[in-house]
Amino acid sequence: MPALQLLSATLESAINRVLALDENSAKRLRPLAGKRLALHLQELSQPLLFVFSQRIDILVCDDEPDCLISLSMSTLPQLTDSSQLTELIRQQKLSVRGDMQLAQDISALFKELDIDWQEHVSRYTGDVVAHHLGRVVRDGSQWLSNKAALVKRQLRDALAEEKPVLVPKGRQLQFNRDLDALTKRTEALDKRIAALSSVKESV
Amino acid sequence: MSDAHSEQTHFGFKTVDKDQKASMVAEVFHSVAAKYDIMNDMMSMGIHRLWKRFTIDSAGARAGHKVLDLAGGTGDLTAKFSRLVGPTGQVVLADINQSMLEVGRDKLRNLGVVGNVEFVQANAEELPFADNTFDIITIAFGLRNVTDKDKALASMYRVLKPGGRLLVLEFSKPTQDWLSKVYDLYSFKVLPQMGKLIANDAESYQYLAESIRMHPDQDTLKSMMEAVGFEQTTYHNLTGGIVALHKGFKF
């Protein structure tokens, strides 16, 4: 069975389904029509070619694209943080060749996705269930992020006070100031010694 | 092979008069057209979609290209080609069978594929197009139903532009013995029963299974393509050779 075609088929249908959930996708796809972006994952034998039209078709082929992005699969998750991109390129974990603007436009297409999940779920379950489900998910994620913040706080306190692995921020600032003062005094003393020795030599 | 005989040819395992085969094949496809897609999915367990994707991946279709999807039936390849060649390109969906063509037309309209697609009822042996018309010709699971395959290949060669390529996706010979045995059991025992259950038409599916066995193997088809002028001819076995994609260029 052609394994790469199975991958491209799965990816293609997933991406188009997600895009179809936002009714503005069609409008955002229009300026990209006819463009081709190749994604070369080093683990795969051939690049994936994303061809844009009223939807996205994914081919497994090495035809010339407008823009070629190559990277390894392990770098893939880091792409979501756009502040990291320059660093990844500098480290040669990511290379972009051709039309950079196209890569940015496509990334914008997915970032601007605004999907009303509750609305889509309601088509299958009815409004009441969807509303409750939505609340459960929102409450759940709120609870999770509260928990995460709490754990982070507790961990920080434990490291700083119970075991002296970290120092509290105030104590560290004081230490920094003391260190600065000490450095200045050492420099002054250094200069004075230098001055005194030159006086002694000239005598 | 009975093809060599001037009056007789094969229809599955039966031998029939040459001028009868076309109408007998037509009957089979009239009878299965409406359920063709479902049957394909059932028979190949969905893998035919991947074989077709592989064909499109090998086609090198670009914006502005002219593509002939021959024996295109229900338009699986055409839908994708239509998007790949864009508004400046053109796709011609040709099939000898009016019923199949109509199913394809309805399906593509529902998918919103319009504008750059043309529908033509045509016999692969005598394509109604000018010389050097197309950049790409595909014929997926169609060649084995053509009465005179050499004539059809020559006709495709004629309408292809210099530099253009032909892709033939067709059932072929499994490369492994054990696979051959499983495959035989499947196509002669299971397949006609499925045809009976789903399309209420065991005979048509019996014909499909038989016609697959009568189709030339990988190397024979390759040399047939070379005989009519194709160059750099290669084939690629898919799923253990149950299906092969042949590719040839016109220069």
How would you describe this structure in keywords?
heterodimer, A: about 200 residues, alpha+beta, Nonspecific Lipid-transfer Protein, Chain A, 5-stranded mixed sheet, 7 helices, about 15% strand, B: about 250 residues, alpha/beta, Rossmann fold, 7-stranded mixed sheet, two-stranded antiparallel sheet, about 45% helix, about 25% strand
Numbering strands along the chain, what is their spatial order in the largest sheet of chain A? 3-2-1-4-5
CATH class of the largest domain in chain A: Alpha Beta
> SSE string of chain A, helix = H, strand = E?
HHEEEEHEHHHH
Total domain count of chain B: 1
Please identify which CATH superfamily of the largest domain in chain A we are dealing with. SCP2 sterol-binding domain
What oligomeric assembly is this protein in?
A: heterodimer
Q: Helical segment tally of chain B?
A: 9
Envelope shape of chain A = flat
Low-confidence stretches of chain A: none
Largest interface: A-B, 17 and 19 residues
Tally the beta strands of chain B: 9
Can you characterise this structure?
Chain A is of the alpha+beta class and 203 residues long. Chain A folds into two domains: 3-111, Nonspecific Lipid-transfer Protein, Chain A (2-Layer Sandwich), CATH 3.30.1050; 118-202. Chain A has seven helices and five strands; from the N terminus they run ααββββαβαααα. Chain A has helices at 3-20, 25-29, 85-90, 100-111, 117-125, 127-162, 169-202, and strands spanning 36-41, 48-52, 56-60, 67-71, 94-98. Chain A has a five-stranded mixed sheet. In chain A, strand 1 and strand 2 (48-52) form a beta hairpin. The radius of gyration of chain A is 29 Å and the shape is flat. The mean pLDDT of chain A is 84. Chain B is α/β, with parallel strands linked by helices and 251 residues long. Chain B has one domain (22-175, 206-249): Vaccinia Virus protein VP39 (Rossmann fold). In chain B, 46% of the residues lie in helices and 23% in strands. Chain B has nine helices and nine strands. Chain B has helices at residues 18-32, 36-44, 47-57, 76-85, 98-110, 149-159, 177-199, 202-214, 218-227, and strands spanning 8-11, 14-17, 66-70, 90-95, 117-121, 134-140, 160-171, 231-238, 243-249. In chain B, the strands form two sheets. A seven-stranded mixed sheet of chain B has the order 5-4-3-6-7-9-8, with helices on both faces. A two-stranded antiparallel sheet of chain B has the order 1-2. Residues 1-5 of chain B have low confidence and may be disordered. At the A-B interface, helix 1 and strand 3 of A face helix 3 and helix 4 of B. Chain B: It comes from Pseudobowmanella zhangzhouensis. Chain B: This is Ubiquinone/menaquinone biosynthesis C-methyltransferase UbiE. Chain B: GO terms for molecular function: 2-methoxy-6-polyprenyl-1,4-benzoquinol methyltransferase activity; demethylmenaquinone methyltransferase activity.
